[in-house]
Amino acid sequence: MASTETTPAQDAGSVEAGLDALETTAAGRPPFSQTFKNKILPPVIAIAVVLVAWSLLHPVVDDPTKLPSPQDVWSEAEDQWLKGTLLEYIWGSVSRGLLGFLLALVIGTPLGLLVARVRFVRAAFGPILSGLQSLPSVAWVAPAVIWLGLDNSVMFTVILLGAVPSIANGLVSGVDQVPPLFLRAGRTLGATGLRGTWHIVMPAALPGYVAGLKQGWAFSWRSLMAAEIIAQSPDMGMGLGQLLEVGRTNSSMATVFLAILLILFVGIAIDLLIFSPLERWVLRSRGLLVKS
Amino acid sequence: MATTLAKAAESVEFAARLEHVSKSFAGPGGQQLVLDDISIDVAPGEFVTLLGASGCGKSTLLNLVAGLDRPTAGSIATDGRPALMFQEHALFPWLTAGKNIELALRLRGVPKTDRRAKAEELLGLVRLRGAYGKRVHELSGGMRQRVALARALAQESNLLLMDEPFAALDAITRDVLHDELTRIWAETGVSVLFVTHNVREAVRLAQRVVLLSSRPGRIAREWTVGIPQPRRIEDAPVAELSLEITDVLRGEIRRHGQH
């Protein structure tokens, strides 16, 4: 193809261009119909199956104080909506949960970095941090109420004790998994000390960190719900835990079910709206997301 | 472009000077000598390959010259901090190809306004114009090594250390990259210390081939390669010298099986 008069350098250039073209594959997004079939349809079917099973089970149990029908729970939701309290319950919990999570983020990130990078701190606090992760933070509700009284600070204390270890540990394992080659490459480029931490270690540890954030949110939400259910006081404001407690004291199983479903729904929604996209973006931009 | 990248080489008499360098590591049977009394000079603008079988301490030697490790004895002097290129591309996957190069510029203190143009220029030098916004995983192996080369050149170091940079590539790509490296070396005037276990590659690229023996690594012999560039790996003089060096190398390796 090349003319006979080409110099070796031009020749290398054109061969190279050919090689580059041969070895580069165009990647695009799959069409929506495929996404719908693979990603959206299966969970919709799963939810439908659960609802059908629930409807079939309801007449068998035949005791609305034990198992309300899906329709009962739905009309309970409608009631709360018309009373204007439904969003208040949800927002009460979500705002507390997200604020607590942000606090945990602010504390857990430098803590994780310290544990990961400073040998003495790791030896001293690493095991405690891992241990705290396996301790259900509900255990802290009772002492927190005694120390802090019945107000919102109890909620935040319990969220922090649940989420900070997850976030810090996620960052630690992220830093531990940074390939040594990146550190060497960074050092030859002049990224040492704090510059190395900022330009190499932190971005390289991002996938582990994001996994820690995801888990940290799950722990935040779980801890918060436990605290809301256990610590009851008029000063605490509205929350989904309070809604569940209202259902319990009124012997309304439909309300209890509504509260449980909403807790589940919010937990999933926050994960789907914030953390899963964040994780996918981090992994995809590094080519770590295997296309299924 | 060649003028901006060319080095003021006249001021120093060497790009790297290794004098009686030895390195030992703590091993299971006490101190293990890895490198023994290595003395090499790399002149400004010179292309030297270090050739040896496994266990000759090639990578250890490059680490010492790069300043990532310290010699047990002897001294190493380089003209500024050397750039280092690895067998794996070692590009940062969280950055695009262009941003990888810009990070090197940034760490060297190049002002923000100049970085983009400089990165594009370096990508042009390795014939990857248009790859600026590409993610590392979107590039082929050969393209990644070229971006890595551009990143190393972004350091504007007088000495480029290369640790078997083409060993993991397929033969066709490797041949092309040999041509490219020769061209870029000539254009930029950078000194290169290139480590390989591939005899033909060493002869194809270098002005001087230094053969290391194994366990411990010592300088076994040195050849000056007088074959004019551009060379091809199939050229008869390249093959001839390769054969000669291979025989000596095999002799060195054979000694290890005889006790």
From TrEMBL, chain A:
It holds the Pfam family BPD_transp_1. CDD domains: TM_PBP2. It is a multi-pass membrane protein. GO terms for biological process: transmembrane transport. GO terms for cellular component: plasma membrane. It is found in: Cell membrane. Residues 90-274 form the ABC transmembrane type-1 domain. The chain crosses the membrane at residues 40-57, 97-116, 128-148, 154-175, 253-275. Keywords: Cell membrane, Membrane, Transmembrane, Transmembrane helix, Transport. Belongs to the binding-protein-dependent transport system permease family. This is Sulfate ABC transporter permease. It comes from Streptomyces capoamus.
UniProtKB/TrEMBL annotation, chain B:
SUPFAM superfamilies: P-loop containing nucleoside triphosphate hydrolases. It comes from the Bacteria. InterPro entries: AAA+_ATPase, ABC_transporter-like_ATP-bd, ABC_transporter-like_CS, ABC_transporter_ATP-bind, P-loop_NTPase. Residues 16-241 form the ABC transporter domain. PANTHER family: ALIPHATIC SULFONATES IMPORT ATP-BINDING PROTEIN SSUB (PTHR42788:SF13), TAURINE IMPORT ATP-BINDING PROTEIN-RELATED (PTHR42788). Keywords: ATP-binding, Nucleotide-binding, Transport. Gene3D superfamilies: P-loop containing nucleotide triphosphate hydrolases. SMART domains: AAA. One of its GO terms (molecular function) is ATP binding. The keyword Nucleotide-binding applies. Pfam families: ABC_tran. This is ABC transporter ATP-binding protein.
